[in-house]
């Protein structure tokens, strides 16, 4: 018997799978993953993007319980609850193809000391209009600011202190020259996650 999970759990599942596992018939859906990085040599910071995609077909629908079961091309199946924000659930039909794409983007940049922090979280949820095919877009951004408290030119690492007082030693890219002038500068980390779900008729 398959465990019903909320549609939000699909977001978590896609994040965790990362395309590196081969689930069995009852362990979940197969996902494919890709990643890309962009940076300027010698300049601290850069952009990392990870994308995970799942495509599956609806094999069962329970209108009363608002659940639907997906099966991928490998035969793996998983059942999900349709969250209240998922409009037009009644229009789902067995045989419909569901496409889900999760994208994570991390942008890191260096900023001068004492610059105004913009730490915070923002998000948006968009659903399909009434009468159209079911679908959903969920996106959120979080910004974290840390301060460079120490550098180690031997190990080529930097110690970052976060707003809650915790510290973390991070490895610095080999092409970056660790300069004393980096001390007390701010490292701004912007994390953006987005999930898009669309449903297509066979």
Brief account:
With 202 residues, the chain is mostly beta strands. Helix content is 5%, strand content 51%.
Structure explained in plain terms:
The longest helix is centred in the first third of the chain and has 11 residues, at 7-17. Strands 1, 2, 3, 4, 5, 6, 7, 8, 9, 10 and 11 form an eleven-stranded mixed beta sheet that branches. It contains one helix and eleven strands. The protein has one helix spanning 7-17, and strands spanning 4-6, 32-38, 46-62, 67-71, 77-81, 97-111, 120-127, 135-152, 157-161, 167-171, 186-200. The chain has one domain. 5% of the residues lie in helices and 51% in strands.
